[in-house]
Amino acid sequence: MNDWLTTILICLPIAGAIVVAIAPLTAYWLGSLAALVSLVEVGFWITSASKFDFGSSSLQSAQNRSWFSDLHVSFHVGEYAFSLWLVGATVVVMAACTIYGWWAGRDRGRAYFALMLLLTGAIVGVFTAQDLLLFYAFFEAMLIPLYVLIGVWGGAERMRATITFVVYTVVGSLLMLTAIIVYGLQQGTFDLTQMGPSNSTWLFLGFVIAFAIKAPLFPFHGWLPITYRESPPEVSAILSGIISKAGLYGLLRIAIAKFPGVAHDWRVVLLVLASISLVYGSLLAFRAPDLRGVVMYSSLAQSGLIVLGLFAFNDLGIDGAVLQMVNHALISTALFLLAGMIERRTSTGQFALLGGMARSRPALATVVMTVGIISLAVPLSTSFAGEFLILAGVFQQGWAWAAIGAGAIVLAAMYMLRWISAILHQDTGPAVPDAALDLRLGELAVIVPLVVCLLGLSAWPNLISSRAVGGNHAKQSIVVEGLRR
Amino acid sequence: MIVKPHVDWFALSPPLALMGAAGLLLLVAVFVPRGPRRGVSAFVGFAGFTAAFVFAVVLDVKSQSGAAIVHDSIFRDRWAALAQVLVAASGAVSVLISYRERMRDEHVAEYYALLTAAGAGMAFFVQASNLMTLFLGLEWFSIALYVLTAIDIDLVGSLEAGLKYLIVGAVGSATLLFGSALVYGATGQLSFDKIAAFGHGHDAMLAVGLAMIIAGLGFKSSAAPFHMWTPDAYQGAPTPVTAFMSSATKIAALVVTYRVLAVGFPQAEYLWRYAIAVIACISLAWGNIAALAQRNVKRILAYSSVSHAGFMLIAVAAANALGGRALMYYLVPYAAMSLGSFAVVAARERELGTPVTLQNLAGFGWERPFLGVAMWVFMLGFLGFPLTGGFIGKFYVFAAAYDHGMWWLIVAGVIATMISAYYYLGIVRAMYFRDAAELQLAPAGGAPPRELLLGAGVLVCLVVTVGSFFAVQPLIDVAQSAARALPL
Known about the structure:
The complex is a heterodimer of chains A (485) and B (488).
Chain A: H1 5-22, H2 27-50, E1 60-68, E2 73-79, H3 81-104, H4 109-128, H5 132-153, H6 158-187, H7 201-214, H8 224-230, H9 233-258, H10 260-265, H11 267-287, H12 291-310, H13 315-346, H14 362-375, H15 382-395, H16 399-424, H17 441-459, H18 462-465, H19 478-484
Helix pairs in contact in A: 1-2, 1-4, 2-3, 2-4, 3-4, 3-9, 3-13, 3-17, 4-5, 5-6, 6-7, 6-8, 7-9, 8-9, 8-12, 9-12, 9-13, 9-19, 11-12, 11-16, 12-13, 12-15, 12-16, 13-14, 13-15, 13-17, 14-16, 14-17, 15-16
Chain B: H1 13-31, H2 34-62, E1 67-69, E2 74-76, H3 78-98, H4 108-125, H5 131-149, H6 158-187, H7 192-198, H8 204-220, H9 229-236, H10 239-264, H11 269-292, H12 297-318, H13 321-352, H14 364-367, H15 369-383, H16 389-403, H17 407-432, H18 436-439, H19 452-470, H20 472-483
Antiparallel strand pairs in B: 1-2
């Protein structure tokens, strides 16, 4: 059973997608089926987490089957501690988004829910694949449902959004494919657990650019504004919450672990790009005129922060980065879903037209306030823990990086407080009808579990940070080993 | 006195089965009354291709060690047998697609007779082991295809397309013939292995002859710059014929190109490797860039087939065992995607009664969920996305190129793939992202008839396209044993 868990986590949603695509049910029941599958998926993840041995540094719940042997490619999946946490974030976020889509009653339900489930399987695959070609297959497979989800259910400018999104990501992933072929044939195997480190700068850059586009990192973020604004809110949530983590995970699992020497040589470049993303993203978020603008630019900033942690090259920074990846996945999903919920009521996200929504809407006010406060990293919140670890880690690379990071946290407070008060406080905005309801039960059912997760992590961030990569228990973990080689 | 060679009839069974079917179909044209004629002739055509398929499979199993037979005129080996399997399968699916095609009842049996005759020609062509049989096979299937392209005289442009194909194709055949004559003049030999045994690549006459043979075969595989006929012929021909041409002809031409070069001209590898690589790059560039500007879906797919000739020629240029395997593997999903996508186009064409453009594909994905999803998968396959065999095919081709140190071919292929994303995804966009209502298109004349056979054909293609992603190992094993027949 144990070694099947990862495979089940990948295959269950894909099987669910096929069933949803062909089952003779109405859209409502297809939605409930999809919601059920996504919850069962969370259940399987909890099982896999409870059986996970954090004391061991080896690959767990692993399965290895030859796919085609002449080039040594295999279906090899398994979990390290840090992939376990990212898978956890994925299944929780995907469940929330699927249920939100069900509640919101997306039209063409059959296609919508099948694609959501397919996407879940592909993302879990990215975080657990231990074969480079399999990783690429999942990485590309994510793009297929996303393309349609944005193109069919997106806003008025969705055509332009899909083209921009696809052009950026396809360019990145084909660079990566080239790097994968060359690297794999040089090593004689595509199995990540057996591949030795490489010193090739070209290969490193092929991977890094692909991941930097996904993350996104300045200057590869050109696809971000239009895509995040035109997607349905739950798809924006997935993009910024989870898909961006696939890029960051790739930096950790491949670019850093397999190219330790080159990554070390290039760290200043990446740290500079990360700092620019952080500061520039924060400033843009502060100046953004609408709900989603703030959230999406803050994702750019958060990606920068996480990259700072990754390229700190020490346990502190990387542990903090993993914790912050999970935090940001939950926070950004909650923020995008809240933006979607507010847009449903006011049919706009422009700050100029919003305001005063706290009055007689206690649930909305409480949730917006809680998520907002956690996201701006007040002390005692889990994102404070993550950011503190990252800054402590990157301080060892040079105090200036930490100073930039600390400065950006102030900016985060500025844009998040602006976000909160533009929704809740001041005079009632012209676009806010008096009849606009408080959060409904269905919406609360989606958002409250996310908030509970965040509060739980705030109480106990050590759950992740000491069990990510360099914690007490897993000193020998794969990434750190790669770094020391 | 001429000594009669020993004839291995079994080795000839796939082309013979198809010839038999063609003969039978000509009798059907005369003896079966009009009412059941359409059904009977489609059945006989399908049976012919199925028989050829079965014979080819048995031939593949029983031809472990390859040999030249019938006085060194044809090969009996797995390389040829596997190609015959693919050609026969493509033909059988083409019959399924053809069944409901609007055509005159008086021509219907002849149509299938020509289809099976073309299949027979290709099955013979891939076995060719000397320059005579090579030319014979080439002309055999080409002439059948010229007529097939022009067969629907009610279809605007069909005759024009046939004529263009005939003229350009004849130039190609003449080039091949001239090249063969030069090679014969230089070496005094007809059969490939004796040419190899004689040859050294520094002979100018041999080199020119080789170049002309490559060009002549390039016409058939529609590799740029020999592709000029492709868009017009593909667009003008009845869509099932296009489906057959784009899959079976390409299989035959590429398989034979590899065979002729590897068996006949191993000493000249340093010449043809770069020639093929350059042709591959031109095909990739031309096919993809020209496809960007097209609105007619058949033309887009035609240019896409030019670019795929480029991808598969990368495997030929690699000139190693991995390349042979890569080519054979690539042909499997490619043929399925090609047949399948043209089948979907045929379905839409019958529904609307007009040529299919990006504009009038709007809403198709929602109206016909199965065909829409299938088309989506075929486009992703052409693009080389995971969950389709197209991905593994491209991966193998690039791996073969890298193996031979031709990394710049990978760069060319990757750039071509990036460009192609625009038009392949453009078709998906056209099918799903716009409503038919938005463009005020409505299929004239009520709901279209359900086409069970066409649906079955598309399903087969879908299963092969997706299945070849998962079942890589068995396919590669088969392709590997086929590639062992070549001296690589």
